[in-house]
Amino acid sequence: MTTIPKKLRSPRVVLLAMSLATLTTAARGADIYLVAGTTTKLMPDGASIPMWGFALDPDFGGDGVVTIPGPTIEVLPGDATLSIHLKNNLAEPVSIVIPGLRAAMSPVYFTDGQGRPRVRSFTHEAAPGGSATYTWTNLQPGTRLYQSGTHSSVQVQMGLYGCITQDASPGEAYPGVAYDQQVVLVFSEIDPALHDAVDSGNYVSFGDPQVNMTSTIDFRPKYFLVNGEPYSAGTPSITAGNVGDDVLVRLVNAGLRSYAPVMLGAHVELAAEDGYSYTHRTRQYSILLPAAKTLDVLFTPSAAGMYPLFDRRLNLTNAGAAPGGVLRVLSVAP
Amino acid sequence: MNWRTARRTACGVGVLLAVIAPTAAEIPGLTGDTFTLAARSGYINAGDGLSLYVWSYADGSGPMQYPGPTLIVDEGATVTVTLNNELPVPASIVFPGQTGVTTSGGVPGLLTAEASPGASVTYSFTASEPGTYHYHSGTDPDLQIEMGLLGALIVRPAGFNPASPRAYGHSDSAYDHEYLFLLTEMDYFVHLWVEFGLPELVDTTAYHAVYWFINGRNAPDTMLEPTIPWFPHQPYNCLPRMHPGDRLLMRVIGGGRNLHPFHTHGNNFTIIARDGRLLESAAGAGADLAVSDFTIQSVPGQTVDAIFEWTGAGLGWDIYGHAPGDPLEPGEYAPDHGKPFPVILPEQLEITRGANWSGSPFLGTFGSVPPGEGGFNMNAGYFYMWHSHLEVEMVNNDIFPGGMMTMLIIEPPGVPIP
Q1: Do B258 and A313 touch (CB under 8 A)?
Q2: Which DSSP category does A321 fall into?
Q3: What does the alpha-carbon distance between residue A220 and residue A228 come to, in Å, rounded to a whole number?
Q4: Rounded to 5 degrees, what are φ and ψ at B250?
Q5: CA atoms within 13 A on the CB side of B151
Q6: Is B13 on the interface with A (CB under 8 A)?
Q7: Residues B228-249: what's their mean pLDDT?
Q8: Which residues lie across from B279 on neighbouring strands?
């Protein structure tokens, strides 16, 4: 699985960064080339956070930029097969899993100090410096999360996650769920202590608890992110169509906490959960978004203006300084 | 007097009282369409006797109260709320679930227009759809909601008739009694730092609640009377009462930042609405998507309306101790009529009893209890605990029992409620 097909550039891999203002990068196509690597994120208070993430690098040429979250992958409607080719520039093994999509999983085990086999990866790995290909068949439309399947308690926190979508047909997320514009909102959080420990080599799973960080049990996030960024005074609003549009808001929780996004000024319709559309849509202004959950909601604004969307669990702080955290404003044009 | 004659006497008195007393519980609050609220500081009583420094809303020049006044308006009304800010920091109000909120006065803020200290701002909106909502500060909500700046908002449906009330237009939302369950929590240290003038020490990423409230009170104070002198800033109680066969509307609001699994003993309820919208498959279909459950997953910011009913169905014995030929009581579960009580009651010296034990297993019947026992059960009703099933939330700063807990009382037929 470490041999990379020499199909260097799929004609369907395009960048959509500008058309989807909320996204760092977007990729389309049935063959996706990702690189796992390191980056550093600057928080509004000046804190510098070492992170891991995925970069889109269609020819593995080394010019991909690691982003948090990773590039949003759009699989074209009708595609039955997806292959993600993963090159690993990290110093430990990584892998990719997509909760909600069927795949033949090949877990990787290691032997702990007591001689017991323990799962390290949910499926086959890309070794440090190596690469691997992950393939899914019988694809179905939906909004899903992709993430590291290796040492997930650490690697997902470090930033190895992103959103992957496939529409039923152009402009139709699921049969009967048409939209005019989409907004992808990926929720996550950062516990700086973990990132510092991993970056400095002080995270040691079977190390000395007096010296090393040995687990993530003391998870205490200080920064709360939407699409990789906490809110700050300069955070721009998100373009969300015009009055009367059906705006599909894809809510993806890549973090470890439950969020409760609330929209002010409108109810939305809950259209789908975990990639399955609801038979009946309820109308709510508040949404419970547990960890790893995806929810697709339809926002049909009846008036132009600004519609704040914020976490009602009140993660509205950047390490104790407000305003911050999980707050965005959706901007609707006349 | 044996238990049966005692029951008949009690019921007879109840029926007499029913003629002259209201028989429906209604959520107290401010009615109308124009309100003036003041954001103000003060102290509330926690269930363990501690005083907590809070910020909340007052009705005009009245006392600060936690939670803020329940605003009760009519569907279609143009609602105007003026906020006078007497706090040392800017404050505001947002109305989740309302559309087209306009503001006048104030200064631009994070989520809405704000009133500077000593200044005012006015909000206006049309209450376009009936239901259960809430309001809270849109200024520094991370801190200010925790400090207490929130309250309930109820929109009565068009054509609301207090004699046969409905939460929404459809008959699926008809009820006999309504009760509010505004669920919140507090981290003692946040309030301490703000009281000491050191809000910069508040770091809500280290948030750790130790008090849990229903309608602004911790148990057991939830079960005290409303509007009592020794709770000058917590006018609302939460003591749901109903007769067998009644429909009790629960208006549940997640007011804090944490999820609370609110659990009813006694029976399941039916969730009929969420966020002020009937759970219906199509407009006018009624609550055809309603679900039966025994724990409401209360989400911060979310409201849930549920109908709770109780008849004793499924017990397998007659809750009145009837003989088979006796007439049915109102709301009685007929299939169990006349069925004998299935166990032999233990002797008095063999049991430990609580303050809510009437001395008899039969509804509306008092039995003898030793001196100093019982006495909290005025009508020989049945008591069911309703509480957060996150059991850590049933304490007051580590002292059990307390917190997010109260009792439902099934009252005998004819007992006036409230």
Answers
A1: yes
A2: B
A3: 17
A4: -100, 120
A5: 29
A6: no
A7: 98
A8: none
Q: What is the CA radius of gyration of chain B?
A: 23
Best of B89, B101, B110 to substitute, by most chain A Cβ atoms within 10 angstroms, is B110
Contact B173, B130 (CB under 8 A): no
d(CA B268, CA B280): 20
Tokens of B103: 């503001």
Round to whole Å and give the CA distance between A53 and A48: 15
Burial of B185 (0-12, 13-18, 19+ CB in 10 A): buried
Work out the burial of residue A190: count CB atoms within 10 Å of its CB; fewer than 13 is exposed, 13-18 middle, 19 or more buried: buried
Which residues, in sequence order, are CB contacts of A280 under 8 Å at separation 6+? Answer: B281, B289
Q: Say which residues have a Cβ less than 8 Å from residue A190's Cβ, sequence separation at least 6.
A: A41, A43, A49, A51, A157, A221, A222, A223, A224, A225
Residue A259: partners with Cβ closer than 8 Å, 6 or more residues away: A187, A253, A289, A311, A313, A315, A326
Residue B167 dihedral angles phi and psi, to the nearest 5°: -80, -35
Look up tokens 């600057």; give the residue: A42
Which one, of A262, A176, A144, A71, lies nearest residue B138 by Cα? A262
CB contact under 8 A, B257 and A314: yes
What is the Cα A202 distance to its own chain's centre? 26
Q: With beta carbons under 8 A apart, name residues in chain A contacting B289.
A: 280, 282
More confident residue, B328 or A20: B328
DSSP code string of A113-178: TTS-EEEEESS--BPTT-EEEEEE-S---EEEEEEE-BSHHHHHHHT-EEEEEE-SBTTEEETTEE
For chain A, say whether B140 makes contact (Cβ under 8 Å).
yes
Record: contact B203-A319, CB cut-off 8 A: yes
Q: Which residues pair with A284 in a beta bridge?
A: A268
Task: Check: CB of residue B145 under 8 Å from CB of residue B158.
Answer: no
**CA dist A85 → A35, A65, B258, B293 (Å):** 8, 16, 40, 46
Closest CA relative to residue B213, chosen from B50, B388, B93, B42? B388
Q: Which pLDDT does position A26 carry in this prediction? A: 66
Instruction: Indicate yes or no: pTM above 0.95.
Output: no
Under-50 pLDDT residues of chain A:
1-24
- Look up the ipTM and state it: 0.93
Q: Which residues of chain B neighbour A320 with C-beta distances below 8 Å?
A: 202-205
Q: Are B303 and B132 in contact (CB under 8 A)?
A: yes
| B61 vs A: CB within 8 A | no
For residue range A153-169, what is the model confidence (pLDDT) as tens digits? 999 999 999 999 999 99
Nearest Cα residue to B165 out of B307, B364, B24: B24
Does residue A48 contact residue A319 with C-beta atoms inside 8 Å? no
8 Å CB contact of A312 and B111: no
**Interval B154-211: pLDDT, tens:** 999 999 999 999 999 999 999 999 999 999 999 999 999 999 999 999 999 999 999 9
Q: Across chain A, what does the average pLDDT equal?
A: 92
Shortest Cα–Cα distance, B97 to chain A (Å): 6
| Residues shown for chain A | 334
